[in-house]
Amino acid sequence: MAEAIALVGCKGPDQEAEYLRILAAAMPEERLIPFRSMDDAARAAARVAVVANPDPAEVAALPGLVWVQSLWAGVEKLVGAFDRPLPIVRLVDREMARTMAEAVLAWTYYLQRDMPAYARQQRDRVWRPHAYRKPTDTTVGLLGLGALGTAAAERLTGAGFRVVGWSRSPKAVPGLDTVHGADGLPAMLGRCDILVCLVPLTPETRGLVNAERLAALKPGAALINFARGPIVVTEDLIAALDKGHLAHAVLDVFAVEPLPAESPLWSHPGVTVLPHVSGPTDMDSAAATVAANLRAYRRTGQVPDGVDAARGY
Questions:
Q1: pTM more than 0.85
Q2: Residue 306: its pLDDT value, please?
């Protein structure tokens, strides 16, 4: 049997035990050991780490690593965190893409069908129907056209929404109107009734949705952020909501999680707060993906395609 694989970054012993059980069932030929249970010799011998949003210092304490397999799609904490090049493989999983696309469609319907307004009216005991807006009369802008954004675009167009997608560099998606780069972003924002953030967090996307970009949206537009909290500038978002330029924001991700009790987002009438649930990792599906990557590596010695350090994803 090959050297042990380090499991790094679980949230407590219960999650650690669950992950070990599911991963072991998917790849019984491998031996996984939690980082905290590894002695110095085992840490030095480990060539692969499977990580779940880990402390980069713990990953750095495995000096013999050849590559890192993440159980999350987001790896911003790890990119650039080490003093040597270390391939980081993001989780690219069809089940996660399906789940995220489902969430995008669900919360797009929530906004398209005026659910925030009806919730406020219920609290105030107001009986007032709102005019129906068809999906075909609603333009959804997608920031990000990776695996998650492409899956979301398919669900949205299938439901009849008009969809335009933005990516950093040119990307053609069959049946989808796409724009790219800094020049393409303002025109797309001006068309959006609903803007959905699905880009990874990188130095370029940190603060991407700021006062200028929010002002470029249609008056009365709404925002869904299912990407990472720091992509949206919270103070600018609250200002746009308070001015009435933005009608509502559905936020599943935040700069600090759990969202602190003192955050004004909790009580803002124009905000729906979700506890980072839009694209949960399905561990059975993720374990099958990780097992396939590890078997290919054992067979060929080739590290799976990883994060481009220059791009940050």
A1: yes
A2: 87
